[in-house]
Amino acid sequence: MDTWMRLMANDGSIVFGRVENGYLHEYEGLDQPVPTGAVLSLRALTPLAPCAPGKVVALWNNFHALARKLEKPVPDHPLFLIKPAESVIGSGETILRPAHYAGKIVFEGELGIVIGKRCRNASLEEAQAAIFGYTVVNDVTAAGLLAENPHFPQWCRAKGFDTFCCLGPAIVSGFDWRDASVVTLLDGVERQNYPLDDMVFTPAQQVSLISQDLTLEAGDVIACGTSLGVGSIGEGATVEVTIEGIGTLANTLHSPVAARQTQSEDARVV
């Protein structure tokens, strides 16, 4: 397995590469995995979301256990929505509560599939080959908005706010998802612990079937859906989603005012 990260250098430039023994071996990019020859210390770099997707395809009802609890039939085709690129943040960044929304905000710990090359109408074999690697996702939702309008379920709005798609801390290629689990902690208390082999659609099936509907580009992410244990996040609470073999994604929820105060305090400390 190889671990890949995307980071910011002191001059503001963004670098991507394979991580080994505290150093980043720089590559041209996720879509062009060619080494540049540069080797950089991680201590001089600031971690970012491990990729910059043009879109995040987020699945619903993709785990048998949750389908049974909700008394929903498993689908014949992946059920999905699109989260915009602007919703993506990395591990350690703040989830911002929308200023005009006071309702419940929900976490969903998930596996993320990172696409490595353009994929359209792909067979299962082509879909598998198009997977660059896997990351960790927290698919955040303003749950109170979903049914706010009785005439139109607002999935994209409820899940598409800026900062509502947490990705990271890394991408791992060669990762065997079949023996892995998603573990989600809320302020240190376990809320989710479910096996990934309970998925309705495997990663290759997801990529193949979704590519029949829309073109997947290098860097795009498919969030594989969540299972039992979804819950709400309170002000100042921290959600940690761990998939052993990939890492831990940690993000804290704040209102915009609280977030600005925290940033000001951090600046004074520096």
From TrEMBL:
Has UniProt tagged this entry with the keyword Ribosomal protein?
A: no
Record's protein name: 2-keto-4-pentenoate hydratase/2-oxohepta-3-ene-1,7-dioic acid hydratase in catechol pathway
User: Which UniProt keywords are listed?
Assistant: Metal-binding
Q: Which organism is it from?
A: Paraburkholderia eburnea
Cross-referenced Gene3D superfamilies, in alphabetical order? Fumarylacetoacetase-like, C-terminal domain
The record ties this protein, via InterPro entries, to: Fumarylacetoacetase-like_C, Fumarylacetoacetase_C_sf
Checking SUPFAM superfamilies in the record gives:
FAH
- Ranges of residues in domain Fumarylacetoacetase-like C-terminal: 55-253
Task: Extract one GO molecular function annotation from the record.
Answer: metal ion binding
Highest classification ranks of the organism? Bacteria, Pseudomonadati, Pseudomonadota, Betaproteobacteria, Burkholderiales
